[in-house]
Design a protein that fits this description.
Length: about 240
């Protein structure tokens, strides 16, 4: 199996997992940097994540131009992906979602921070990108590279960012890593809202977050991936180096 075949298959599985775990609904998407050309990325045509097949995956340049569209309509918000790959050479996968539990944090400005060890990978504190700050009244969608780059700038070197009134964007060093962080971002937000009703929260310390994050390797990623993939009706493939 070629690296490209492997990544395309990973993306199909990632879409099914994110849908099955409640991170995406009929909207939201996940991409991967092209394994043979870092200036391109792979992303499905505009379709609900749960329905995506191999043939839906389209190759794009970083500015969001399709290489061989073949009548497959693109996601409007593909600029999120291209702009992040442009500014973050360490990133190999991007998830954009409208994950329900993160929305209250984006609109209240209440800081979303890890309080559970499994959620350390969301970062020390998740920043909020507000499209209104620079672009005023819009449809809130990231509809060009200017908006994508502004979001990428706010994200900086972090693993995740919220988008006010819209959702979140998560990055990873692999498709499995970006999916892992996305699932635990949704869970962390849900738990934080529950804990906030009970009293003062003792969050993970910065040192704890760094130590836990350093331990998140193939062992954890593959263990969750196998379980989530099976649950979504997909098999885990052997890694292709
Ligand atoms: Zn969106």
């Amino acid at each position: 199996m070629s690296k490209l075949d492997f990544i395309v298959e990973e993306l199909v599985t990632a879409n099914r997992i994110l849908a099955n775990e409640g991170v995406v609904d009929s909207f939201g998407h996940v991409s991967a940097r092209h394994p043979d050309n870092p200036q391109h990325f792979l992303l499905s045509r505009a379709r609900a994540p749960e329905r995506i097949e191999r043939d839906d995956i389209v190759e794009y340049t970083l500015d969001g131009t399709a290489i061989d569209e073949r009548g497959r309509a693109p996601y409007l918000e593909r600029y999120i992906h291209g702009a992040i790959y442009e500014t973050r050479p360490d990133v190999h996968a991007v998830v954009h979602n409208h994950s329900p539990s993160v929305i209250p944090f984006g609109v209240t400005g209440k800081k979303l921070k890890p309080l559970l060890h499994m959620c350390a990978s969301i970062g020390h504190e998740v920043p909020i990108w507000d499209s209104h700050d620079k672009f005023g009244d819009t449809a809130l969608l990231v509809s060009d590279m200017d908006m994508g780059r502004d979001l990428a700038h706010l994200l900086g070197a972090r693993p995740s960012a919220l988008m006010r009134g819209h959702g979140a964007t998560v990055v990873g060093r692999s498709v499995r890593h970006a999916v892992f962080v996305s699932v635990y971002l949704e869970l962390g937000a849900k738990l934080q809202m529950q804990a906030m009703t009970m009293g003062k929260i003792k969050y993970l310390s910065r040192g704890e977050i760094d130590k836990i994050t350093a331990r998140v390797g193939d062992y954890s990623l593959n263990r969750t991936w196998e379980n989530w993939a099976r649950r979504a009706g997909r098999e885990m493939q052997a890694m292709v180096e």
